[in-house]
Amino acid sequence: xxxxFWYPIATSDKVTNTEPLEVQIMGLNYVAFxxxxxxxxxxxxxxxxxxxxxxxxxxxxxxxxxPYHGWEFAGDGKCTLxxxxxxxxxxxxxxxxxxxxxxxRYGIVFAFLGDLPEEERPPIFExxxxxxxxxxxxxxxxxxxxxxxxxxxxxxxxxxxxxFVHPLQGAPSIIESLRKKPITVDDVPPWGSEFYCAxxxxxxxxxKAIGAGEGNTWAGSAHHGPNTLITRIYFTNEKAFRQYFxxxxxxxxxxxxFFVNMRSFxxxxxxxxxxxxINLRIAQxxxxxxxxxxxVCTPEDISKEMLTEVDxxxxxxxxxxxxxxxxxxxxxxxxxxxxxxxxxxxxxxPARRTEKNWILDTVPLVAAK
Length: 369
Ligand code: FES
Ligand SMILES: [Fe+2]
Prior knowledge:
Rieske Iron-sulfur Protein, binds FE2/S2 (inorganic) cluster, 2 domains, Naphthalene 1,2-dioxygenase Alpha Subunit, Chain A, domain 1, binds fe (ii) ion
């Protein structure tokens, strides 16, 4: 799990100015709320007074109020009120919690969990067709998986599983072409890679009915950063699904996935639910496999699995993970587990680069190389 990327916190409707929302990501808790202008904020969840959970408190105007002794924190993380303190006394500089850059896209509130300055931050993946003519987006679908998020991303980069895990899904088979032609992985620098595969003629009746196999039928996947997966299925030049999975690791064995499905056909709104149902059925087939993988996490030693030619996209993804390891962005999970419970931790926010006086410890990281 890595700091310095954008993580989906919740769908926009779940972040309100009436009740704070407590969300766990990478083993740590955050609180999300909206101020009176409607701007969403994401802060570390631990109150610096005596450890109250801000997400269990209240939203009061532009602040979130701790449920324990009523300290209030504004959207920038600064404490604005200590109820027991005389009115003419200022809140000490240490009265603040980490505040994370927040953006809303595609109906999702994202937070940048890291301390990089704005110009160095990897971007949220841009869905270029979102909101454009000729494409329709489904409402965001959120689902949870009892598996590690990297295993889930790798599953999306794994072209060879489709035929075996999803025999009835109606997606064209790509096994034949994978067998005939080595797969080529293209870099999409600096944060990801992608691959495409022509699809053989052996498509199901269901996909033939929508024109698959008429030529130019292909499928492909990509990743952006450690936790965004993109799948593209072109049944014909005009009829395509583009699917985006923004993944939030809750810990090392649970993942919350925010799924945006774009389509260029079946545009009628009444198809929305039908397509969600089909996609969730397919996702469940993946989930059944993912939740039974051994080991649960991606093995650090590549020799502990037998990757083959067709697994090249997974190889490339792991290369990227190593690059982010080397930058010192990976959470030292073993140390984190050993420390938690004794000391409150959070991911360092950008303000820590310029300000002192922080109460919470920062999450331990594997040293940069
Ligand atoms: S613990 Fe939050 S106000 Fe005391
Ligand atoms: Fe799958």
